[in-house]
Write a structure and sequence with these properties.
With 303 residues, this protein is α/β, with parallel strands linked by helices. The protein has 2 domains: 151 residues, NAD(P)-binding Rossmann-like Domain (Rossmann fold, 3-Layer(aba) Sandwich), CATH 3.40.50; 136 residues, Alpha-Beta Complex (L-2-Hydroxyisocaproate Dehydrogenase, Chain A, domain 2). Helix content is 48%, strand content 14%. The protein contains 13 helices and 11 strands. The strands form 3 sheets. A 6-stranded parallel sheet has the order 3-2-1-4-5-6. A 3-stranded antiparallel sheet has the order 7-10-11. Helix 1 crosses helix 11, helix 4 crosses helix 13 and helix 5 crosses helix 13. The longest helix has 25 residues. The protein is globular, with a radius of gyration of 19 Å. The chain binds 1,4-dihydronicotinamide adenine dinucleotide and oxaloacetate ion. Belongs to the LDH/MDH superfamily. MDH type 2 family. It is an enzyme of class 1 (oxidoreductase). One of its GO terms (biological process) is malate metabolic process. GO terms for molecular function: L-malate dehydrogenase (NAD+) activity.
């Protein structure tokens, strides 16, 4: 029997990530090739024409899984009954800016949209905040949508995770699928800490080994590798004059897909115990400190 359609909201759907993301969702990249979708797209008034253009293209693409499309500039309409909300709407940073520089514009959007989700979304709606500053926007959304379970509100650092896999795979000349258990700690910002201490590599025709022993260059892992991942967003902006879009859209699909389908028991997160060395502790503390500062700044923007 065919599955019931899942309602997926994409805010900022007329923007560049939105344009890359909606066809991925409609093709089943996020929820699987047997999962019908009803796509809800939200953007703001000045983007109405562009949003309708995206809707026209979705019709023209004749996606077999796409049952219906709601395209609107009304957050209450957009959030109605949604099971998954991918919050991309907001203002991207430009060259030379830090992500927290877009704070004042974006946190007030997240406060307003939290209220719309609170009133209209399905009770077990799962939320992924993509727009920057992603962690802090997610915090604001949690505060102003108290009936959405806290464990259902997440932000996108999967792109950083994928970037770390990409760097290791280029360095070792292996496929990304051969690397596992890389961790991104902390803020989606230049203080984030990509941690390879628990990561392993399975080289072709060999058994699984710690990343550190296969790379055999702690200096690279502790310096250039970390800064490359931390600064990758800025490097893309410098190259494209626009921030990452196709990789962000792809990471959003990875995030939701793994959350729903790989993590057992319908997305229940679980804790693992890890040994943290002094090097990691220092880096984790630095990014935690920045998150606390961002929180204070965010609340001052809302007052
Ligand atoms: N967490 C991550 O890994 C990443 C986050 N980002 C962030 O994602 C966000 C979107 O980036 P892009 O798509 O490149 O930007 P964009 O400017 O191309 O698109 C953003 C869209 O949001 C819309 N928008 C603005 N205010 C809105 C509101 N109140 N409600 C609904 N829509 C609204 C705009 O009209 C625009 O269509 C930015 O904040 C960017 O910094 C980008 C890349 C990676
Ligand atoms: O760097 C930016 O502003 C966009 C982003 O979050 C990323 O590419 O990681």
């Amino acid at each position: 029997m065919a599955k019931e359609p899942v309602r997926v909201l994409v805010t900022g759907a007329a923007g560049q990530i939105g344009y890359a993301l909606v066809p991925m969702i409609a093709r089943g990249v996020m929820l699987g090739s047997d999962q019908p979708i009803i796509l809800h797209m939200l953007d703001i008034e000045p983007a109405t024409e562009a949003l309708n253009g995206v809707k026209m293209e979705l019709v023209d693409a004749a996606f077999p899984l796409l049952m219906d499309v709601v395209a609107t500039t009304d957050a209450m309409v957009a959030c109605k009954g949604v099971n998954i909300a991918v919050m991309v709407g907001g203002f991207p940073r430009k060259e030379g800016m830090e992500r927290k520089d877009v704070m004042s514009k974006n946190v007030s959007i997240y406060k307003a949209q939290a209220s719309a989700l609170e009133k209209q979304a399905a009770p077990d709606c799962k939320v992924l905040v993509v727009a920057n500053p992603a962690n802090t926007n997610a915090l604001i959304l949690k505060e102003f949508a108290p009936s959405i379970p806290e464990k259902n509100i997440t932000c996108l650092t999967r792109l950083d995770h994928n970037r770390a896999l990409g760097q290791l795979s280029e360095r070792l000349k292996i496929h990304v699928g051969q690397v596992k258990n890389v961790i991104i700690w902390g803020n989606h910002s230049s203080t984030q800490y990509p941690d390879v201490n628990h990561a392993t590599v399975t080289p072709t025709n060999s058994e699984e080994k710690p990343v550190r022993s296969v790379v055999a260059d702690d200096n690279w892992l502790n310096t250039e590798f970390i800064t490359t991942v931390q600064q990758r967003g800025a490097a893309i902006i410098k190259a494209r004059k626009l921030s990452s879009a196709l990789s962000a859209a792809s990471a959003a699909c990875d995030h939701i897909r793994d959350w729903l389908h790989v993590i057992k028991d319908n997305g229940q997160l679980f804790r693992v115990r890890l040994k943290i060395d002094d090097f990691s502790r220092e880096k984790m503390d630095a990014t935690a400190k920045e998150l606390v500062e961002e929180k204070t700044l965010a609340y001052s923007c809302l007052n």
